[in-house]
Amino acid sequence: MTPYEQVKSKLDELNISYDMVEHPPVYTMEEADKYIEGKVGIRTKSLFLTDNKKRRYYLVFMDDDKRLDMKQFGEIIGEKHLKFASENLLMEKLGLKPGFVSIFGLLNNTQKDVQVYFEKDIVSDIPLTFHPNDNTKTMFIGMDDLKKFLNSLGFSYHVVSI
Asked: YbaK/aminoacyl-tRNA synthetase-associated domain: which residues (predicted)?
């Protein structure tokens, strides 16, 4: 089963609806924008972070137009030293490569050791955009359905102001 088929299978199992746009491979939402132009949705930025000792892991979702202040976010979650996780750690924990980071990587996190954070401004009735573990597709999916997805995998999430 391909990574996308794994995502699709889980969403179908949960009876989660979504819209999908197929396009050539893209590695940033800026690249995807020309293919999803005109569709209603919040373009999300997905960041995979770790503490300095690589013992705690954080998956952060925020509006693609914003920049994450790592120091401020660290203060909010009680973590002094945050950094972007390495390519190897991204593959180990989420089974993903850079440019593919999304909420659906949690399907591969059997240790359940990744903490999930949503920036408060994207938690709304407007669908969010993610790659479904395949950068030739962009998925539009509602927050209620994302909550259902997270719950089915045994993940909780936090909403923060960053």
From this structure: 23-149
